[in-house]
Specification:
34% of the residues lie in helices and 24% in strands. By secondary structure, it is of the alpha+beta class. Helix 2 packs across helix 6. The chain is globular. InterPro entries: Lon_prtase_N, Lon_prtase_N_sf, PUA-like_sf. It holds the Pfam family LON_substr_bdg. It comes from Jannaschia pohangensis.
């Protein structure tokens, strides 16, 4: 378990559109670009072994920032190297963060000064959604998966803890990057579940992502 004082003020960040990491969740990644291979090497040498997953902005803002302000840091918990010098890694989500400054330096990858304030809940126990109606949610999910041509192990979903279920779907469903960012920034598990429901219902009605974010 991490405490707020354990988290560093600067971390390496990995900008990847559509890739969402949430606290207490796991994200597998395939690393092959030379700059990010070096990022993994440097991370393995660090004490905290944290990498920040963050969405690139669709457009650079007036202040020059190219990244979304809020991301989620994961601890590098699994690494395997292929014969052609690629990494298969797993990040275990620790806490969301807010970027205060993007840092460029000698490293070929981006680093950022970050603050962890406001995300204390991420370091605690799994969240509970008291209003979660599992049968109704799974019925909607079944219709959404059929519409999207997706499949899953329904038996495991029926027994999964609500945070694991909702966060896993937030990460795995084919939502747009802007929608994934909204799921990341949801202040509570209940809000994230409501957002997932809205996105699935909207997709079933044939709505487009452009309409959703207007």
């Amino acid at each position: 378990m991490y405490r707020p004082n354990d988290l560093p003020p600067k971390i390496a960040v990995f900008p990847l559109p559509g890739a969402l990491l949430l606290p207490r969740s796991r994200l597998p990644l395939h690393i092959f670009e030379p700059r990010y291979l070096q990022m993994i090497d440097d991370c393995l040498k660090s004490e905290h072994r944290l990498i920040g997953m963050v969405q690139p902005r669709a457009q650079t803002t007036g202040d020059g920032r190219q990244l979304q302000t809020i991301g989620c840091a994961g601890r590098l918990t699994q690494v395997s190297e292929t014969e052609d010098r690629r990494y298969m890694i797993t990040l275990s989500g620790i806490s969301r963060f807010r970027i205060t400054r993007e840092v460029t330096g000698f490293q070929p990858y981006v680093q950022a000064d970050v603050t962890w304030d406001g995300f204390d809940r991420d370091l605690g126990r799994p969240e509970v959604d008291d209003r979660f109606d599992r049968p109704k949610f799974l019925d909607l999910l079944n219709r959404y998966f059929e519409d999207q041509g997706l499949s899953t192990d329904w038996d495991s979903l029926k027994d999964a803890e609500e945070e694991l279920l909702i966060n896993s779907l937030s990460m795995l469903c084919p939502f747009e990057p802007e929608e994934k960012q909204a799921l990341l920034e949801a202040p509570s598990l209940a809000t994230r579940r409501e957002t997932v429901v809205t996105l699935m219902e909207f997709a079933l009605r044939g709505g487009t992502s452009d309409e959703m974010i207007q």
